[in-house]
Amino acid sequence: MAKESPTTDVITFDLKSVFSVPRLSSNVVFHKRQLSVYNLGIHDCATETAYMNVWDETTASRGAQEIASCLRKYLTSNGNQGNKTELILWSDSCGGQNRNIKMALMLLQLVQDPTMPYTTITQKFLESAAIVFYRTIRTSVIHTYIHT
C-alpha cells in the first residue's frame, strides 16, 4: 500500500529482544552484572529502509515512553517528505510498549502538529501466534462438528 499510494506512509516497528553486553560464555561470569541493550527497529515500507534506535539501560528503559519517543523522532525527521497525509503504523500488540494511552497521545499530538503533514494516523496491530492458533483450532472443531 505504501508504494501504491502517493499520499500514504506505512511503517512497521518492533522492539527486538534485549541483548546483554558483554557476551559471556562462562557460567561463573554469566551471573555477574551485564548491561542490557535495547533496539527498536523501524521499517519504512515505501522505501524499504530500516532504521535502528539503540540505547542501553543507563539511558532509558524499554516502556511506552521510550517507544513513543523513538517513533516521534523518526516521524519528525522523516515524515515531512512529499505530500503524505496518511500514516499507517503496524506493530505487535504489546500493551506495555505499543498499545497504550501514551502512544495514542503521542500520535494525537502528531496529527495536531501544524509542521507535520499527517491528517490521519492509523495504528494497526498484528495478532499473536497464540490467538491465531486458538482461532484455527476453534474453527477446525466447529467445522468438524458441523460436518459430522
Tell me what the structure shows.
By secondary structure, the protein is α/β, with parallel strands linked by helices. Helix content is 34%, strand content 28%. Helix 2 packs parallel to helix 3.
SSE map:
Elements: E1 8-15, E2 19-21, H1 27-30, E3 35-44, E4 49-56, H2 64-78, E5 86-91, H3 101-112, E6 120-125, H4 129-147
Parallel strand pairs: 1-5, 5-6
Antiparallel strand pairs: 1-3, 2-3, 3-4
Helix pairs in contact: 2-3
Order of helices and strands: EEHEEHEHEH
Assess the beta-strand content as a share of residues: 25-35%
Q: Please report the distance between the alpha carbons of the first and last residues.
A: 42 Å
Oligomeric state of the chains present here:
single chain
- Form type: elongated
- Counted up, domains total 1
Q: What does the largest sheet look like?
A: 6 strands, mixed
Provide tags for this entry.
alpha/beta, six-stranded mixed beta sheet, elongated
Q: In brief, what are we looking at here?
A:
Helix content is 34%, strand content 28%.
